[in-house]
Amino acid sequence: MSGYRVSRSRLADVLFAVAVGAVVLTAAAFDTDTTAVDYGLIALSSAALVFHRTSPRAVLAVSTAGGSAYVLHAHPGPTAALPVFVAVLVAARAGHRGYAAGATMLFLAAYIPTGPTTHDVVERSSLLSGWFLCAVITGMADRNWQAYLRQTEQRALEAERTREEAALRRAGEERLRIARELHDSLTHSISIVKLQAGVAVHLARKRGEEVPPALLAIQDASSEAMRELRSTLEVLRSDEPTGTPALLVERACAAGLAAELKVTGEVRPLPATLDRAVYRIVQEALTNAARHAGPAKVSVELAYDIDELTISVTDDGTADPAHPPKPGVGLTGMRERVTALAGTLHAAPRPQGGFEIRACLPLGEAG
User: Fold this and answer.
1) What is the DSSP code (8-state) at residue 323?
2) Comparing C-alpha atoms, which of 326, 331, 334, 329 is closest to residue 158?
3) Can you tell me the distance from the alpha carbon of 221 to that of 248, in angstroms, rounded to the nearest whole number?
4) Once rounded to an integer, what is the mean pLDDT over residues 23-48?
5) Mean pLDDT over residues 55-83, rounded?
6) Distance (Å, rounded) from C-alpha 80 to C-alpha 20?
7) Cα four-point dihedral sign 193, 198, 203, 205
8) Residue 365 pLDDT
9) 308-315 and 258-264 as β-strands: parallel, antiparallel, unpaired?
10) What is the distance, to the nearest Å, from the Cα of residue 366 to the centroid of all Cα atoms in its chain?
């Protein structure tokens, strides 16, 4: 699916570059003195636009160089500035405002001397200056708007996460309250019933009398009720995760995330606190990958060493090392959990693209 999206995006870029080149070539065809060199320069400056998503600065350099050479050689009309105009707009939108302004001045410096008269020079220069100024401003405005949308989405996600955590906290508090009420009321009453029944059975046997079946039934039923009540109270008081990292990966795959699990080293039982931390770290990392990585592959690895467990969750998504994300509630909570266990956490974009979360937890007494 991701390859299909990339191919569609690339096809759209090619069609866009062809459309821009066709407009400039059509205008150049009406000039009788247009040469093969001119057509080649137009094709070069237009074809570079195919890569405007991945390499905006390179596209800006190629389009500006080709367009400037074309206007110096052929002295065309304002339409010749269209590929450079688009490249400036894309560069400004990507945040390269200085490069966009420099390319604009370079192209105008090449274009201004091509006017046959002073009037034409002033008119064409003013027109193109206005175009390029609009391109830079539009690119900056669009970039700011996209940043605002991303911040708004992030705030909404954090607010949702906060509401979920608050709801879970309230549910946990309510479970503890119910557990206390059951313990204070039922446990005391059942204990007294069991104790009285036991005393009655003991006295009857001591006197050599036959123990009434009803009394034995009361004793057995009270003992069974105590066991079931203790089990119920343990469930109510427990906030342990129900599952394993393997189950989390299986659920992520069922939800459409391309995830895989790899376990290395000697697997052994972990203390309850450490086992819960491993579960929560993998859960949070998979949640972040599903929300922010896009159509990416996620790899979850648990590496058991002699005295350390390393949890590594990596993806090949859209994270950029040049623009690391701000830690949200999830990453902050993950770091606090790891720090409480005397471990270390690394969460950042990878140099080759994507995001990596690596937690190292000690398996000794420190853990």
Assistant:
1) S
2) 329
3) 40
4) 80
5) 81
6) 10
7) positive
8) 46
9) unpaired
10) 32
